Amino acid sequence: MKYLFTGLALLSCSLVAQADAEKLVIAHRGASGYLPEHTLPAKAMAYAQGADFLEQDVVMTRDDQLIVLHDHYLDRVTDVAQQFPQRHRQDGRYYAIDFTLAEIKQLHFTEGFHLEGKQQVQNYPGRFPMNHSTFSIHTLAEELAFIQGLNHSTGKNIGIYTEIKSPWFHRKEGKDISKAILTTLKEYGYTKTTDNVWLQCFDYDELQRIKQTLEPQLGMDLKRVQLIAYTQDKETQTLQNGEWRNYDYGWMMTPEGIDKLSKTVDGIGPDYHMLIDKGSSRGHIQLTPMVAAAHRANLPIHPYTVRADQLPSYVSNVDELYQILYQQADVAGLFTDFPDKAVTWLANHPLSH
Ligand code: CA
What we know:
Blueprint: H1 2-21, E1 24-27, H2 40-49, E2 53-60, E3 66-68, H3 80-83, H4 101-106, E4 113-116, E5 119-122, H5 140-154, E6 159-164, H6 167-172, H7 177-187, E7 197-201, H8 204-218, E8 223-228, E9 237-240, E10 243-246, H9 255-264, E11 267-270, H10 289-296, H11 318-328, E12 333-336, H12 339-348
Parallel strand pairs: 1-2, 1-12, 2-6, 6-7, 7-8, 8-11
Antiparallel strand pairs: 2-3, 4-5, 9-10
This protein binds calcium ion.
């Protein structure tokens, strides 16, 4: 009897824990509000802060290595322009795909900046100072080994949330980045929907190719998230009648589009602004039809990106934004540059289902 009671107590505890655990904190590029994005220190910090998932953006090098980097350019976050001044393309940008891994490993990584004339200006002034201390770019395999090492030493099982960046761009350059990423994930033991991994991409057609062709070939079946962009941001290109055109995301913004997505992907990752009606003001938040449509279709919503240092006008602090998204919109998880603040908010607001 005592054993049974203990068992019941454990069971009810685990159910409560599970209800909380349903709300995910996804560390956007690591704890990027505190340390340069995607560096291993930023991942370690997010891990220690209690994030449920750590994000990897992945692009490919000239010698077909997978590196963890957000842009397919190197110039926003490294000293590539100083070390390799001749190696930009006609548009002035330095493309990761034009450099070998050995060259990329020589670069000094920094908090992101843009140029005003020749002057480097830090994009988020309150964050880790640019050109400060020492950081470098690592491979996807190195990051997976790092996270799995932490999972071993802490006894936790923190997940990975891997984004295939611009498969259309890599295809133009003659590379199949999706196949390479899936192969690496498989090598590290991520193969099934029940494994602690989400695979994300802005490219709908590529996600379907992954589901219908690549994963069956590799004996894999991962949870897939359709990221949703504003069409005008020109995130994705698609080949139509032999011509590369800007992909139109319009259909994903409709209830019918959400229904279609619910049958073809396991979750959606919209910009959180797509969930909040434009007429919203402080204390008067209206959600867009996308939210109800996703809930009707049982499609988890993982919006991006909550930043404590870049708030919309209808909130006065980041906690209000967490409340709107986690509670009012009832999203299943969200991407944030400040995982500690999301973890704290969730701990202080146990949400019932
Ligand atoms: Ca990303």
